[in-house]
Task: structure prediction
Amino acid sequence: MSERSAPAAEPSPEPAAAAASETTRPVVGILGAGRAGTAFARALLRAGVAVDIASTRPPRALQHHLKIYAPGAVPVVGADIAARARDSSGLVILAVPQEELDEVDPDWVVGTVLIDATNTWQDELLPGWLQAAVDEQLPTSMALAGRFGSARVIKALNHIAHADIDDAARPAAELSQRRALAVAGDDDAARGLVMGLLDRIGFDPVSLGALAAGRIMEPDGPLFNRPLRREDILRFAR
Ligand SMILES: NC(=O)c1ccc[n+]([C@@H]2O[C@H](COP(=O)([O-])OP(=O)(O)OC[C@H]3O[C@@H](n4cnc5c(N)ncnc54)[C@H](OP(=O)(O)O)[C@@H]3O)[C@@H](O)[C@H]2O)c1
Result:
């Protein structure tokens, strides 16, 4: 991701002040402000990355939630999630339950690298296009890549629990001492951008290669919710 300068101070909780002080910081967009979305936001903010975040709530209502769960993140509407990120990091994280994905407009993320951090849970009633992939035993990220065809979809951040995003990040540690996280995607440059982001927030990013290889990151796969090192992930990827 592009980075112009390190932050001089902690981000302000006020949106206008935050926006003004973030002109020199990379910006990442996050769709979804629940357990996962706010954990990603906290990790990014700690790493000096500015965050725009959207949920179903209007920004004014979301601001109260963010004061508690991700102070410094800037609430926006979904349609504006990439307005700043597109010209900055280029990255938007998708942290919306899969059963809600028909409500996420693909136009919101045109031209971005879209990090698919979502998972399929048995109790969810999935959109038809996603259920079709599940029925064919395809990785759901491949269906997302079709749905969000104007973005480059990369699977990442889905196989770590939100509490571990807070607890296991070690930005000051050597890569070999960090928890490893997998990255899968068909576009090499996009995969590299996401790996740079994971490194920045304190994890050891491990490329699995193509999006199809991300199958092992899903809830029934060997990487899911396990504190693994690079060598473990590479072993499971063979
Ligand atoms: N929880 C974890 O540890 C974890 C870790 C990694 C990945 N994930 C994955 O991330 C996804 C979200 O999980 P979660 O645990 O964060 O769920 P959650 O706590 O229920 O939060 C879901 C968030 O998505 C928002 N949302 C729903 N529809 C939306 C829409 N159309 N546009 C924008 N935002 C929308 C909700 O908005 P409101 O706030 O307005 O209701 C809420 O903020 C799931 O697929 C999950 O498997 C979860």
Remarks:
- Residues 15-237 form a domain with the Rossmann fold fold (CATH 3.40.50.720).
- Residues 28 and 51 are 5 Å apart (CA to CA).
